[in-house]
Amino acid sequence: MPEADLDLLTDAARRAGQIALGFWRRDPRSWDKGGDAGPVTEADLAVNDELQASLMAARPGYGWLSEESDADLSRLDARHCFIIDPIDGTRAFIAGQEGFSHSLAVTDGDRIVAAVVHLPVRDITYTAFEGGPALRNGQVIEPADADIDGASVLTYRAVSEPGHWRDGQVPPFRREFRPSLAWRLCLAAEGRFDAALSLRAAWEWDIAAGSLIAERAGAVVTDQRGERMRFNSQRAMVDGLIVAGKHLHGQILDRLKP
């Protein structure tokens, strides 16, 4: 049942936070993974080891997909799969900033059915399960639905390049940024920002949990072409993302260059 998996993920996310805080602002060892994969720290690996051991012990029949684990394609044969980012926002973590999170999700087929995004420094926990509400620290959340003109959009600088937009006309939205992609989806879900947008392929572990939280909050959640996201794929990537209220989502999709 998704509710039971959500309880499991919530407990695991809090343990992950305790481990991460044991390294945070204590000069953890870090190194570059190479191949444009970015940095990793000893904290990422410690969190990953704990989550993999505890979650797989609790659900031995589930598959496992994590940013910090070796690829195991046997997950493709499992009905259910954990999709985990042990620390989302590793650069922020290394810099001693507060905006990193733990992103944990469970699939049923290609759908996310239970999800947690936990920010341990800020003591914020977002949760959702299939058929239930999206919550922030136990309180129901819902997105805003602004007009694209003046909307606050969580995204990166390159999205404002004219080549991404019809006729080279960049909509006059306000671009904002937060280091954790999972957190960006949750901020859009709770209406603190109007949308989260990426025109780059996104790793599933970055967006799996946040996508369900935003969807259950009432946002429209699609890839950059307006298609439903599908998870536990062989490539483990989604073709960009648009997360916003129905009106704003439609406006963004209409303005993007096909």
UniProtKB/TrEMBL annotation:
The keyword Transmembrane helix does not apply. Mg(2+) binds at residues 67, 85, 87-88, 206. Gene3D superfamilies: 3.40.190.80, Fructose-1,6-Bisphosphatase, subunit A, domain 1. One of its GO terms (biological process) is signal transduction. The keyword Protease does not apply. Its cofactor is Mg(2+). Keywords: Magnesium, Metal-binding. One of its GO terms (molecular function) is metal ion binding. InterPro entries: Inositol_monophosphatase-like, Inositol_monophosphatase_CS. Belongs to the inositol monophosphatase superfamily. This is 3'(2'),5'-bisphosphate nucleotidase CysQ. It comes from Paracoccus methylarcula.
